[in-house]
Amino acid sequence: MKLSKLVGDRFKERPTDCVVDSHALMVRGGYIKLMANGIFSSYMPLKRITRKIEQIIREEMDAIDGQEVQFPVVMPASIWQESGRYESIGAEMARFQDRSGSPLVLGMTHEEAAVHLVRDYAKSYAKYPFMVYQIQTKFRDEARPRAGLIRVREFTMKDAYSFHTSQEDLEEYYARCHKAYERIYTRVGVPEVISVASDSGMMGGSVSHEFMLLTPIGEDSIAICGECGYSANMEAAECILEKTEHVSAELTKVHTPDMHTIEEVCGFLGSSPDKSCKAVVYQRNKDDSYVILFIRGDLEVNETKLTNHLGCEIHPAEITEESGIKAGFIGPVGLVDGVTVLYDRSLESASGLICGANETDYHYTGLDMARDAAGAEYHDFAKIRDGGICPHCGKPAIRISRGIEVGNIFQLGTKYTKSMDMTYTDQNGEIRYPIMGCYGIGVGRLAASVCEAHHDENGPIWPKAIAPWQVHLCAVRADQPEVKEAADRLCGELEAKGMEVIYDDREVSAGVMFSDADLLGVPLRAVVSPRNLKQGIVEITSRDKTLSEKAALEDAASVIESLFNTL
Amino acid sequence: MKLSKLVGDRFKERPTDCVVDSHALMVRGGYIKLMANGIFSSYMPLKRITRKIEQIIREEMDAIDGQEVQFPVVMPASIWQESGRYESIGAEMARFQDRSGSPLVLGMTHEEAAVHLVRDYAKSYAKYPFMVYQIQTKFRDEARPRAGLIRVREFTMKDAYSFHTSQEDLEEYYARCHKAYERIYTRVGVPEVISVASDSGMMGGSVSHEFMLLTPIGEDSIAICGECGYSANMEAAECILEKTEHVSAELTKVHTPDMHTIEEVCGFLGSSPDKSCKAVVYQRNKDDSYVILFIRGDLEVNETKLTNHLGCEIHPAEITEESGIKAGFIGPVGLVDGVTVLYDRSLESASGLICGANETDYHYTGLDMARDAAGAEYHDFAKIRDGGICPHCGKPAIRISRGIEVGNIFQLGTKYTKSMDMTYTDQNGEIRYPIMGCYGIGVGRLAASVCEAHHDENGPIWPKAIAPWQVHLCAVRADQPEVKEAADRLCGELEAKGMEVIYDDREVSAGVMFSDADLLGVPLRAVVSPRNLKQGIVEITSRDKTLSEKAALEDAASVIESLFNTL
After folding, report:
1. Are B476 and B483 in contact (CB under 8 A)?
2. Residue B448 in 3-state DSSP?
3. Which residues numbered 59-78 in A keep a CB inside 8 Å of some CB on B?
4. Does the structure show a pLDDT above 90 at A494?
5. A245: closest CA of chain B, how far (Å)
6. Nearest of B339, B336, B241, B347 to residue B290 by alpha carbon
7. Which whole number is the average pLDDT over B152-173?
8. What's residue A202's pLDDT?
C-alpha cells in the first residue's frame, strides 16, 4: 500500500475538542472521522487494526467452543417486551416504527436475540452446554458520548452467550471465558488489563467482572487493595467501616440559622461530619416519589447500590414546599410520612450524632440511632473510599484508581430464560430453565485503549499483533531514481515474504515522512535514503525506540522479517 | 467441530411458507432463523459461508486498490438532506430520532457517507483516483420481503465508492471492477452469473450494470438477445418496433356500449389490439395529479421508464368522476385539460387506430396520430417482449429470462459530489467536482443464490471455496469403541492438516447422519463404519455425487486432502 494513496489526512496540531490522547492521535493520524455525536467512520488504518483485534477475539472464542453466529441489528420490539426490557430500558435504546407501524429497536445488547435463536433448539439437557457469539454493530444512545472511541453511540462489539444446566457448569465456563479474555488482552498488547468485580446493572444476574485498563483518563473508578489484591468497580465495592464507640447523650434541639450543609452545621456546633447523620434526597424517575437516604456525614452515596436496592431509576430530588420536607434540616426524627426512608450501614448503632430536626433552622445533637430510629434497617449504600477498609482482607489498604472498561462478563442466571420461557427437559424428565452467561468486548474501545496505553506525543505505538501494517518503508528523496529503485525493490521483497508494508515514496521531506510514520504507529520503520544508499544500507528502527539497526541493502528484507519476529 | 454440539435444528419437511428452494433448505439445514419479517439471525454454518464470501470479496476489492473502511449504520439526517435523498427516498429508509430529538436514519446505501468521509481529504487532483469500500450491515424497509435471504430488510453488503477526475478514468476503473466482480462470482462458485445493462434507479447516474444469476425464481426479468448476446434488465431495455404502413381513414365515432377494455372493443369492431391506442392512467404519489400514457394496445408499460421520465414516483390511478376522465373510453382527441399526457414510441406515425372518444360508451376508429395528435412527443415507455427486436443487432431474437441480482455497479457521475459540495483543484488550479462510481454486492443474497444454483432435493451443494466445512466425517455406530476410536483419530489427522471438519459421532442411524450431511452440503463426506473397518477402509464421497472412493484407513487423511484439492 502506498501512503500517497492512503485516504485520510494526518496533521500535527492537537484538535481542541480532544480531551484524551487516543482521541487526538486517532484524529491526527487519519484513523477516524466524526459524522455525528458519538458516531464515527473509520479509515483504513483503524479498520485494519479492528479486523486484527476481531480475528484474535474470534480465535479465542472458537478455542472455548464458541460458535460464531449473527443476530440482527434491527429487532422487533416483541422480543424485548418478552424479557421486560422494552419497558425497563430508557432512552439509550433507539426505537422506531417500520413502514407498517410495527415497533422496532436497535440492538444495544443481544440476550433476547440469543434466547430467540436457541430456545427451539435446546429443548433437551443433552444439547448443553453451548456458547454462541457474534461480532456486530450495536447502537446505544448514550447521553454523553466522549473521548473519541472510548464512549460512542455506535460501536462494534463481540458479544457471547452461554447456556448451561447447572450453576456449577456456568461457573466452570465463566472461568474458561475469564482466561480467554486474559489471553485476548495479552495478544492485542495490553496484558496489564485487570479484572474487577462489578455491578451487573441492567444485565441482571449477580456475579460479574469487568476487565479494566488502568489509566487516569478512565471513566470508571476501581477500588484495589494494596494488601490482598482485591479489586472491584467502585459501583460494586462493599464499603466496610470500623465500629465507633457508643456516646450517651440526650436528643437536643439546637438553633442553626441558615445552616444547610453538614459542614456548616458541624463547624457551628464544633463537631465533625463523621459525627453527623446526613440526608440525601432522591426522586424515583417513574413517579417523582421521594427517597430519603441517611448516611454518615463524611461518606458519599453509591447511587448504583441505591438503584439496585430500589429496583428502579432515580434522580437527585427537587424538593417542593408541599412535600413537607425541610431541605437542609432533614433528620430521622419527626420526618414527614409518605416518603421512602433508607439507612446506610455507616449509621448502624451510631450515637452522638448531629442531624436535622425537620424544622427550618433547627438541628438535633445527641442522635442515638438505636434509641431514636428504632427498627431502622441498614444496608450498604456508601461509596468505598481511598484508604478505606478492604472487604476481603479487612486491612485499610484500598486505593482508588481510574480505568477504562475493555470487557465484561456476567453470570446472568435465569433472568432471560425465565422471562422468555426457554426451557429444557433434564435427565429426570423435568422441565427446567437453562442458566446463562454473557461476555462482551467492545472492539473500537479496545483499539482506543491500546492506543491510550501505548503512545507517545507523536503517535500511537501499535503492538505488532494489531498494527495496521508491519513495516513502514520510507524512500527519502524518492525523486532520485536510485532511491526509488532500491525502495521499490525492497517493498517488493518484503511483500513477497508476506509482510504488510505501508510504503511512502512521496516527494516530501524526511520530517514529514517520519511524523506521518509516527502517527501510523507501525512497529518497524525502514529508511532508504541517498545517505544510506552510499553506505549500501537500510536503517531500521522500531516505533517504540527500543531498536535501531542497519542492514545491508541486499539483506534488508530478511533482516526486517527476523527483527519483526523478535518484537 | 462436533455436529452433536452444532446449534440449530435440521429436519426433513419443507416448511410451507418457503416458496424457493434456497429458503427451504436454509431453514431445514439450520442456517437461518426468522426473527421478524425480512429479518433473520444466522446460525454458525451460514456465518462460516458468509465470512468466506466476504473474504473473497475483500481480496478482490484489495486487488483493485480498494481501501477497506467502515461507515456508520446510523447516520444523521443532515448528510442525506445535503444530497436531497432524505426527501426523495420513501418509506424504505428507516428514520427515527435520538434522545435529543435529532433525526437519524439507518443506512441503506452509503454514497453520502463516502463523500462525507473523503471530501476534506481529496482536495487536490493528485489524490485521485481512489476507492473505499466496507462490508457492513444495512437496513432497507422493503414493502415485500420474500424468498428467505433473497429479499430481506436487514442485510450485509459490500459497498464500494470510487472517485475520479475524468469520465475516462471512471470508465477504466469501472471496467476493472467489472472484471473483479466476474472473479468474485467465479471464486464463490457461480461463474454462470452474467452482467446486464440496468436502470440506475434512485442511485442516479446513467451507465450501470447488474450481475444476474439466471434462475426461474429470480424476481428480475432480463432481456437477452439470442443472436448478438445483448443483455439488459427489462426495466432498462429499449423497446424497438417495426414501422407499420400508413392507413388512410377518417376519424369516426362509434357506439361501444359497456366495452371498457381494449380487447372487448377490438373484438367488437373486428380489429386487433396492435391496431389500437390504449390509455394507461397513473397518479403521481406526491399530489395525486393524473398522468395519462398512450401506448399501442398490444404493449405493456415499463413503469421504470415512466418514473425516470417523470422524475417522481407514481401509482395506478383511481379515476374520480370530478376529474372528467372517462375511464375505459380515454383517447387523445378531446381529452380533458389539466392532466399530463405522454405518448409511447409505438404510436409514432401510427394510423388506422381505435381509441377512446372521451365520452362514455363511445370510441373512435381511424385515429391517425400525425393528423389527430399533432405535436405529440414520443418516448420509449414500452416493455420489451419475448421475441422482440434486439436494440443492439436489430434481430427479433430477444428472449426474456428471470434472474436474481447478485451485484450491481454504477457510474454515478457528479450527482453526490455536486449536491454535497465536494470539490478538488485540478492541474490548472480550477475547482471541479469529482466523478464517482459505486459497486455493491449483497453477501447473504449471494449465499442464497449459490444455494439456489447448486442444490438437490436433499440440500445445498456448497462450492468448496465457501462451504461451511471441507469434510463431513461420519462415525456410523459410534457406540462401538473401534469405530469411535478410528473416527476420532481420522478427525485429529484431518484437523492437523488444517482441514475444516464437521464430525458426526452421534449415536444415530446412518440415515439420519447422511440426511444431516446432505443438508450441510459439505463437499466431501468420509464414513467410518463397522463394515468399512472390517475392510480397513474409509468411504469418501463428494456431495455433488461425482466422486466415490475408498481409502485405506491409515491413508485416509492424505487421500481426503488431495481429493479436496482436486475438487
Report:
1. yes
2. helix
3. 65, 67-76, 78
4. yes
5. 51
6. B339
7. 96
8. 45
Domain B469-566: give its CATH superfamily: Anticodon-binding domain (3.40.50.800)
Going from the C-alpha of A315 to that of each of A277, A291, A293, B21, B406, the distances in angstroms are: 21, 10, 13, 55, 52
Amino acid present at B425: T
Cα B205–Cα B211–Cα B214 angle in degrees, nearest 5? 140
The helix-helix angle for A167-188 and A44-63 (nearest 10°) equals 140
Q: Which site among B35, B64, B111, B133 would you substitute to test the A interface, given the most A Cβ atoms closer than 10 Å to its Cβ? A: B35
Identity of residue A442: G
User: Which amino acid, one-letter code, is at B427?
Assistant: Q
Among A228-237, A360-369, A420-429, A538-547, the least confident range: A228-237
- The H or E element that residue A68 is part of is strand A66-68
CATH number listed for the domain at residues A15-237+400-452: 3.30.930.10
pLDDT score of A201 more than 70: no
| Contact with chain A for residue B264, Cβ under 8 A | no
End-to-end CA distance of chain B: 22
Rounded Cα distance between B510 and A553, Å, is 63
> In CATH, which superfamily holds the domain spanning A252-379?
YbaK/aminoacyl-tRNA synthetase-associated domain (3.90.960.10)
- How far apart, in Å, do the first and last CA atoms of chain A sit? 22
Of A228-242, A433-447, B160-174, the least confident: A228-242
DSSP B312-356: S-EEE----GGG---TT---STTPPSSSEEEEEGGGTT--SEEEE
Residue with cell 466496507: B134
Q: In the structure grid, which three cell numbers stand for residue B121, read together? A: 481529504
In the block, which residue shows the cell 447516520?
Answer: B75
Structural contact between residues A293 and A301, judged by C-beta atoms closer than 8 angstroms: yes
User: What is the pLDDT averaged over residues A260-287?
Assistant: 89
Cα separation, B117 vs B113, whole angstroms: 6
Do residues B202 and B85 touch, judged by C-beta distance below 8 A?
Answer: yes
At A163 the three-state DSSP class reads: strand
Q: Across the interface, do A7 and B130 touch by the CB < 8 Å criterion?
A: yes
User: Is there a contact between A136 and A50 (Cβ–Cβ < 8 Å)?
Assistant: no
| Cis-peptide into B391, omega within 30 deg | no
Percent with pLDDT over 70 in chain A: 99
Listed by start position, the domains of chain A span: 15-237+400-452, 252-379, 469-566
* Residues of A whose CB is below 8 A from B96: 94-96
Query: Which stretches of B13-159 are DSSP H helices?
Result: 21-28, 44-63, 77-83, 85-88, 111-118
Q: Any chain A CB within 8 A of the CB of B358?
A: no
Q: CA-CA distance, A493 to A476, in Å (whole number)?
A: 18
Q: Are B459 and B521 in contact (CB under 8 A)?
A: yes
CA-angle at B350, arms to B344 and B354, nearest 5° = 90
State yes or no: pLDDT of B513 exceeds 80: yes
Out of B50, B76, B132, closest to residue A35 by CB: B76
CA A317 to CA A307: how far, in whole Å? 14
Closest CA to B397 of B215, B243, B230: B230
Give A10's contacts in chain B (Cβ within 8 Å): none
At B176, which amino acid appears? R
**Range from A15-24, A262-271, A542-551, B367-376 carrying the lowest mean pLDDT:** A262-271
Q: Which H helix or E strand runs over A345?
A: none
Cβ–Cβ pairs < 8 A, chains A and B: 173
Q: Mean pLDDT in chain B?
A: 93
User: Class assignment of domain B11-237+400-452?
Assistant: alpha beta
pLDDT in tens, B87-107: 888 899 999 999 999 999 999
Q: Any idea which residue has 442522635 for its cell?
A: A367
Q: How far apart are CA A542 and CA A462, in angstroms?
A: 11
